[in-house]
Write a structure and sequence with these properties.
Chain lengths: 232, 276
């Protein structure tokens, strides 16, 4: 099976700081993968590189065997850890925008999810609370029938109820043939939805395994195993 | 995809620029009405009001230009280098399309704004002078004599059309280069991890100085050539041809600046993008 995401000896430096160091990994289609690591471990840098928002210092990162560019951006649905929707846009304008640029955007699905949250099409992004904005962003991202979903800290800084909503939205709506990479350090919350995990620390991949393998080999949950590996 | 980017860019900027243009038209109407009805009044209050209207009209024109400039800078900064950059740079478009969408839309708004200002001032002048000005211009008795005299020295309308086209080209390239001066400074300034705004200003000044020095070096040689060119022109036709050559050289200089600034902008956004 052809990998949807491949990193080969991937390095990224910011000046003298090495954010990623010789990262080798592959993500197979149809898997929900947790990119797990403490703050500053290189998770966001890896996701930014996959989206073409950064250029590797050395090595390669490939999406469906292609270097990040306009062609791979058609395949990837990305949720950054920022509030990136223009505040002046109305919900309708936001949906027009996504429908214009992404052929795989399912407008009816997005409209239905937004309506369920009580978000009207005439509402502007600036009128939304922080939590509602984050939900609206997630709805836009998950309404695409992408091949790879890259979700950077989707449950960081939100209340437990919103956290449940976000994880439920991800699991209910992703394209089953696609892969989902969820970057987080809140492992216990995402553990139930994960197939595989990648542990990353200090810019290096320290483990890539399936959740079942960790449970069988170590007799503990991913969360407990993470705490053991990253014990201070 | 450029068409779609343009559509959304016009939508984003139109919500600011259309009201600005509307306010300018309103201020012009107000100015014209004031001149007609209260300029000659003896009432002090109405005279103060008239002064205020004139001030608003002039201030409105200056404010409109400033708003257009700030909007051009702010759209590039917020949309491509701020948090919205996470949306824009992950669209299935290339960097060239992103940059061109900004250049085209800014250029269109500046053109529309400046044409409107010229039109409004022109219309005001015509209205205020009654029909006199239009008549004077259209019935200018010497027009035919002037053309006849020009024909006699070998100059035909086509020579002036070419000169006008060259001038238009110079304005277009110069306008694009001006936009790119801001874009390149911001793209380079924001490629650093810290002090992005300050570094953008430093790059803006640095780029200005670089082109000033380069321009004066080229200009020193150029001025001698221009002088020689005009001195060697012994008839009207060769004088006009000299003007065309100078205009072409000026357009070439603007084009060189625009090309260098475009390359710096694209490089900054493509290779050194560093969104906060």
């Amino acid at each position: 099976m052809e990998a949807i995401l491949t990193c080969k000896q991937l390095c990224k430096c910011y000046g003298s700081v090495q954010a990623l160091d010789s990262v080798d990994l592959t993500v197979a289609p149809g898997r929900v993968v947790g990119l797990l690591g403490p703050n500053g471990s290189g998770k966001t840098t890896l996701i930014k590189l996959a989206n073409g928002l950064l250029t590797p210092t050395s090595g390669e990162i490939l999406i469906a065997d292609k270097a990040p560019g306009p062609e791979t951006k058609r395949l990837v649905s990305y949720l950054p850890d920022k509030q990136y929707l223009p505040a002046w846009m109305s919900v309708k304008q936001m949906m027009d925008f996504f429908a214009d640029f992404y052929a795989d955007f399912d407008r009816a699905k997005a409209a239905e999810m937004l309506e369920r949250l009580g978000i009207k099409e005439t509402m502007h992004i600036r009128e939304m609370s922080k939590g509602t904005r984050e939900k609206a962003q997630l709805i836009m991202v998950m309404s695409r029938q992408a091949q790879l979903y890259l979700l950077d800290e989707p449950i960081g800084g939100v209340d437990p109820a919103t956290r449940d909503y976000i994880l439920d939205t991800i699991i209910r709506n992703y394209n089953p043939e696609a892969s989902v990479v969820i970057s987080t350090h809140l492992i216990s919350d995402v553990e139930p939805v994960l197939d595989d995990v990648i542990f990353i620390n200090g810019g290096r991949v320290v483990l890539q395994s399936s959740v079942d393998e960790i449970r069988e080999a170590h007799g503990m949950s991913v969360d407990s195993y993470f705490r053991e590996v990253f014990k201070c | 995809m450029l068409g779609k980017l343009l559509k959304h860019e016009f939508r984003a900027t139109g919500r600011v620029m259309l009201p600005v243009l509307g306010v300018l038209v309103f201020l012009t109407l107000l100015f014209n009405l004031s001149v007609r009805f209260i300029a000659t009044t003896d009432s002090t209050l109405l005279r103060v009001l008239f002064a205020l209207v004139i001030f608003s009209f002039v201030a409105g024109i200056i404010a409109a230009e400033i708003i257009a400039l700030v909007l051009m800078i702010n759209r590039f900064y917020k949309n491509l280098l701020g948090e919205e950059g996470y949306l824009m740079h992950t669209l299935p478009v290339n960097v060239h399309e992103l940059v061109w969408s900004k250049i085209i839309v800014s250029f269109v708004w500046f053109t529309v704004l400046n044409l409107l200002i010229v039109l409004l001032i022109g219309c005001s002048a015509l209205l205020l002078s009654g029909s006199d000005l239009a008549e004077v211009f259209l019935d200018f008795p010497e027009w035919s004599e002037i053309w006849q005299a020009l024909r006699e020295v070998g100059l035909y309308p086509r020579h002036f059309v070419l000169l006008a086209l060259e001038y238009l080209l110079l304005i277009v390239i110069g306008g694009v280069a001006s936009c790119l001066h801001f874009y390149a400074a911001m793209a380079l300034g924001h490629s650093f991890a810290n002090h992005k705004g300050l570094l953008s200003v430093v790059f803006f000044i640095g780029i200005s100085m670089f082109f000033n020095i380069l321009g004066s070096m080229l200009g020193a040689t150029g001025m001698d050539n221009i002088e020689a060119l005009f001195l060697s022109a012994d008839d009207a036709l060769s004088t006009v041809r000299s003007m065309q050559t100078v205009m072409g050289a000026a357009a070439g200089w603007e084009l060189l600046q625009a090309a260098l600034l475009y390359a710096a902008t694209v490089l900054g956004l493509k290779r050194w993008l560093n969104l906060a």
